[in-house]
Amino acid sequence: MTKQKFTAMTISLALTATTAFANATEDKTARAMSAAPSDISAEATIMDVDGTVLRQGSNGWVCMPGVGLIPGDEHPMCNDAVWMKWIGAVVSSAEFSTDVIGVSYMLQGDAMVNNDNPMATDPNDGGVWVQDGPHIMMLFPSMDMLADLPRDPFAGGPYVMWGETPLAHVMVPIEAKENAN
Q1: What is the per-residue pLDDT across 131-176, written as a single tens digit (0 to 9) for each?
Q2: Extended beta strands in 67-162, E state
Q3: What's the CA gap between 8 and 107, in Å, rounded?
Q4: Is 45 helix (H, G, I), strand (E, B) or coil?
């Protein structure tokens, strides 16, 4: 192969790889932005599930194209600073606490998860598994604030997920769902 052909092929491969990366970044950015209302996601930082910042934002929100805690998940989410702290604590197995309410949007829905056990991986384990459509998630400074909310995801309305764990949060479904169990 001549040097000229080798160089042309190298440039062609580099352009193809660059275009594929740009398209993947555009797709991830669009998916991440679909997680929240546009008045939030338009100015949010877009972060890939591996922590790579795809676009720097200016409003304090971080939108991701998938849930980094679930390998391969492509359900986007947009998080305020409290939720980003929660995710950081989960990833590092650290304690989490907050003095303020935290909000996360998942307007494209979520993966199938066990409502009681965040570490469960087998939907046939007899636990209560749920897959929410569009929803908002909220963190609270005190579990006492959640005392009167149901733990049953099929009761209708907001409910507590992972209530007996340090990862407890409130799910606020936007659509009705049916119990597939």
Answers
A1: 999 999 999 999 899 899 999 999 999 999 999 888 899 999 998 8
A2: 77-79, 102-106, 113-114, 129-130, 135-139, 159-161
A3: 45
A4: strand
Angle at 42 between CA 113 and CA 32, to 5 degrees: 30
pLDDT (tens digit, 9 = 90+) per residue, 49-89?
889 999 999 999 999 999 766 667 789 999 999 999 999 88
d(CA 40, CA 59): 8
Q: By the 8 A CB rule, do 131 and 120 touch?
A: no
Burial class (CB in 10 A: 0-12, 13-18, 19+), 41: buried
**What sign results for the dihedral spanned by CA atoms 139, 171, 92, 34?**
negative
Whole-number pLDDT of residue 156: 92
Amino acid residing at 109: G
- Whether the CA torsion 38, 108, 83, 158 is positive or negative: it is positive
Mean local confidence (pLDDT), 2-26: 52
